[in-house]
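User: Design a sequence. Structure:
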């Protein structure tokens, strides 16, 4: 019987290739991956078109990484883009009944827009597969993945479906986190169960924000500093039509 630990691998990893763009066109495999946080000693995944990634975008904060070297630093170019730092003073207008994750995602969109554009540009310029991840690969990664997919023209229902796939992986994600997920200082522990879910309404709120712009997420990116040339190159790179 094998004694290999099933948790010594990324448990919320997937390629964002194969997503529908319309007219039978799909996003290209091997361009961008999303996952939970890599650990030292993880086995190489066998399901990815190419591994290791050329570029890693680590969305975690310093309270999570503790300034330790990234496990993939020896094989990939690692960028740290903390999406949750410096958001304490961001005020958003939402119904009090809104899901806590809806509030979190809207706070990221409004308070970390420049950082999301930075994530987009890092992935755009990557010479090979780019991996984006946070701790669980759910919230910060989910917002970033939605931005990348939507700006390429992927249908909203497919983006929600990709986001929801994390739900089936959460037990192993929590086991990888030693059942003690790391949150920014000040998060109420009673919110943990709700924050560990993947409610469609939360990611749908992100897509609704994009829908207010011409070209959806591409328009959102353009408004926040991305250029038309960058957006065209992204669609071409991800196999979308400019």
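Assistant: Done.
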């Amino acid at each position: 019987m094998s004694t290999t630990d099933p948790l010594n691998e990324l448990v919320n990893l997937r390629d964002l290739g194969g997503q529908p763009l319309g007219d039978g066109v799909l996003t290209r495999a091997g361009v961008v991956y999303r996952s939970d946080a890599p650990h030292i000693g993880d086995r190489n995944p066998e399901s990815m078109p190419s591994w290791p990634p050329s570029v890693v975008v680590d969305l975690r904060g310093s309270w999570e990484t503790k300034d330790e070297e990234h496990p993939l630093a020896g094989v990939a170019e690692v960028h740290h883009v903390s999406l949750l730092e410096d958001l304490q003073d961001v005020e958003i207008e939402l119904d009090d009944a809104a899901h806590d994750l809806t509030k979190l995602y809207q706070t990221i969109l409004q308070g970390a827009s420049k950082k999301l554009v930075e994530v987009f540009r890092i992935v755009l310029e990557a010479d090979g597969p780019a991996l984006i991840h946070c701790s669980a690969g759910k919230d910060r990664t989910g917002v970033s993945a939605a931005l990348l997919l939507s700006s390429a023209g992927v249908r909203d229902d497919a983006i929600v479906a990709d986001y929801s796939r994390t739900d089936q992986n959460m037990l192993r994600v929590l086991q990888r986190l030693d059942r003690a997920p790391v949150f920014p200082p000040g998060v109420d522990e009673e919110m943990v169960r709700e924050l560990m879910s993947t409610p469609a309404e939360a990611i749908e709120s992100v897509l609704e924000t994009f829908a207010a712009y011409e070209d959806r997420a591409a328009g959102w990116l353009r408004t926040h500093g991305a250029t038309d040339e960058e957006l065209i190159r992204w669609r071409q790179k991800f196999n979308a039509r400019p």
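DSSP finds ten helices and seven strands in the chain. Residues 113 and 224 are 7 Å apart (CA to CA).
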